[in-house]
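Action item from last meeting closed. Structure (169 res):
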């Protein structure tokens, strides 16, 4: 969800960029090697002055037909659920930004999809929240969001455990 490189501030681009480069991109590479379908959601560039451009490696994978890029404006929860079911998908693993906003609450996010009957998983180690000015270092908003998510929305997957499963042959 929303692996942007053109957010509204340099701080957000730098903070989330580290997670993109060192967590999300490696996870996506290994998931593709295991044959897992990858869907990237972003804003349509025609409707946004920022927060629409995804990581260049992900964009290359889109261009090569290895992953699918969808735009938030094109889907609501019913339409996304129908799309997923037409692809034979009944479980979703969420990674990306922001755990306390987009990942949890967008029409294609965890809450609407659990209500649509999908089995939901969340990898907090490949995600982050929008924090308060004094919580960026501790990631307390992300930790609290993860706790809330774990209570009723999704099963939590440890990043390292997931990567170990993905890289095993």
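Sequence:
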């Amino acid at each position: 969800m929303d692996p942007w490189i053109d957010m509204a501030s340099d701080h957000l681009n730098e903070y989330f960029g580290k997670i993109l480069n060192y967590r999300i991109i490696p996870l996506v590479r290994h998931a593709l090697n295991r044959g897992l379908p990858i869907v990237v959601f972003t804003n349509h560039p025609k409707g946004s002055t920022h927060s629409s451009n995804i990581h260049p490696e992900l964009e290359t994978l889109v261009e090569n037909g290895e992953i699918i890029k969808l735009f938030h404006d094109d889907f609501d929860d019913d339409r996304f659920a129908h799309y997923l079911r037409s692809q034979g998908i009944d479980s979703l693993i969420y990674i990306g930004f922001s755990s306390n906003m987009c990942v949890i609450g967008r029409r294609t996010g965890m809450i609407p999809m659990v209500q649509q009957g999908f089995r939901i998983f969340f990898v907090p180690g490949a995600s982050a929240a929008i924090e308060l000015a004094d919580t960026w270092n501790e990631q307390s908003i992300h930790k609290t969001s993860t706790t809330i998510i774990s209570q009723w929305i999704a099963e939590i997957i440890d990043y390292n455990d997931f990567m170990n499963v993905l890289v095993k042959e």
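Note appended to the action item: The chain has one domain: 10-167.
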